[in-house]
Write a structure and sequence with these properties.
54 residues, mainly alpha
Amino acid sequence: MDPKSLFSLSDHLDALSKEGDPLEVLQETVDFEYFRAWLVDADFSHLRQFRVIL
């Protein structure tokens, strides 16, 4: 990926899609909406000790 190119990120993502982006495969495989309510209701305050920004 050429960082000097205005469209380098777009070109990079297109190339990943053509080669079989594993994140796209995961998105097609897993129904992430199933977990949305659980994640919204979850209490992540215990993670503040690890300086995780939520």
